[in-house]
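Sample intake sheet
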Amino acid sequence: MPEQYIIDFLVYIANGWISFRYTERFLHEKYENRRRALLIWTLIYTAGQFAVSEFSGAWSPYDRLLNIIPAMLLLFVMQHFFFEKDFAKQAFVITSFEAGWEILRFAVSPMAHAIFSVWSPFWAWLFQNEAVISFLPQEALLSLMEGTNRIAVFVVIALCRGMQVGILALYLRVVSKRFIYPKSGAHGYEIKPHDSMFLLIPCGAVLFIDLTMRLMAYSLDNGAMMLVYDRVPSTLVLLPLVSLMLLGMIISSVILFQNLVQYKDEEQKRVLLENRVAQVHKEIEELTDIYEDIRGLRHDLGNHIAGIAACIRKSGSDCGGELEKYLSRMTDTVARLDFADSTGNPITDIILHQTRQQAKRKGIGFSADFHFAREAGLDAYDVSVILNNALQNALEACEKMEGKRAIEVRSYMRGKFFFIEVENDFSGELKWEKQAELPSTMKKEKSLHGMGLTNMRRCAQKYHGDIDINISEHEGRHRFRIIVMLHARVDED
């Protein structure tokens, strides 16, 4: 009847819009205009669903599988044209969407059956009631029943399908929000084959349970179709509960999956960080000794060279000019052993010295006003991790640019807080994943990089601090500034 086509049209439009919004949470888009892509997607989905329903209209309820497969293929083809290829995520998006939509029929259809099971006896009572018949002839009552039934069927079906669409949208929203890994975003984690099986099995199980329930829901009795609701009335309550619990199973599997991913990631970073800590602490001790030796050696060599030069000038030797030139070159060499920055800590001196030398070789301006706050009670290792990562990121960002480039580093105390600021020019390209707190690495080997900012935040949080990132523009240049705040431990033992 025409009313059914109206309901189907509205449902397909809603599902098309929902499926697009759901898919874009997982896959990288190919399109440039989102609104246009959403409109085209919805229209294609609606037309495709009408084609599938018309083609499968003659099939019995037992052939529901032949209706699900074309619908899933339609979504797969549409994903191919609108989004980047990612088979694992595509398979999960399609199966989770179809599983939710199909199983939700059992969440709302019992309500329609319950309403109509009361509706029909009501009209039978009217036809048997003499007071009603005396007021309205049977012909008028029959005409009224026909029109009223048509409206009632439309309203009940529309209500049930609307509830089905609403619950589907809520279920998909929960899945997409739970699936996104907060620190990397939806696109940040590449699903491995065993991961896809972990996610697909619950969705596939729901689809097959749905097909099994359909086989059990319909039966033939003397050639007439009988519903399970008539044979077992308790299924009017049990089937909706089962369908909602199956959706909960999919959501639970997604939550468990993301917890496992997060645990694995955190464990990997923890082990790597512990190894780095042990290695760096050992290097800090060695570098401290070397640093002190170099400063002492420079002082002694300077005194020796000065003494030799004085003796040569006093002796008035003919070869004094050549010796003075030689000693002058030695003085320059010894001067290179001196560190331009005296921060109050040998490790931060070395880090600034190395960065200054690297920046000089690459034609990058470098200025530092950094002092290690001994009174703040900070571990030199933690400060060196923050400083080294920030400066290395700044160098890499400047290397990608042409023209004038500069790096500035400074530190200062404000009350009980110690601040480290590093500011540098950059190309203006910064990639933020959805719902990510920190920008992601632009390097290809994402598993081996992108931990600098994370390690900086970990060190800051050890001191009840955090990091903040600001982007600005100065004299036509993009400037990236990271500020690290550390709470001093002056009151701690």
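Comment: Confidence is low (pLDDT under 50) at residues 182-187, 443-450. Residues 235-315 form the longest helix (81 residues).
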